[in-house]
Design brief:
The chain is an all-beta fold and about 120 residues long. About 0% of the residues lie in helices and about 50% in strands. Strands 2, 4, 5, 6, 9, 10 and 11 form a 7-stranded mixed β-sheet that branches. A hairpin with a 4-residue loop joins strand 7 and strand 8 (about 75-80). The chain is globular.
Length: about 120
């Protein structure tokens, strides 16, 4: 079983940048698709970005041009670089993993981190 440990969340001001990290256990990290999801109060969990084993990426329309997902297989770590943060980005951010190709839907991911809070003040 894959275990995911997240870090990097915090309180920032609008316009600031933040980088989230997700460290995965095991030696099979490179074969997994990795995703970042977020959930704000009163809303369902939604896709933020995902990256495949081939480093192909997908993004939610709301973060295109501002967020970048990447992975470092040598470190078994996936990152979410968040630039030009807005108050509406405030949410709990979750790292997720699944075998094979990535997906837009949270229900298809097998493994999840505990979540890290990102709060953006105006």
């Amino acid at each position: 079983q894959v275990q995911l440990v997240e870090s990097g969340g915090g309180l920032v001001q609008a316009g600031d940048s933040l980088r989230l990290s997700c460290a995965a256990s095991g030696r099979t990290f490179s074969t997994y698709a990795m995703g970042w999801f977020r959930q704000a109060p009163g809303k369902e969990r939604e896709i933020v970005a995902a990256i495949s084993w081939s480093t192909s990426t997908i993004y939610a329309d709301s973060v295109k041009g501002r967020f970048t997902i990447s992975r470092d297989n040598a470190k078994n770590t996936v990152y979410l670089q968040m630039n030009s943060l807005k108050p509406e980005d405030t949410a709990v951010y979750y790292c997720a993993a699944k075998p094979g190709s990535y997906s837009y839907t949270a229900g298809t991911y097998n493994y999840w981190g505990q979540g890290t809070q990102v709060t953006v003040s105006s």
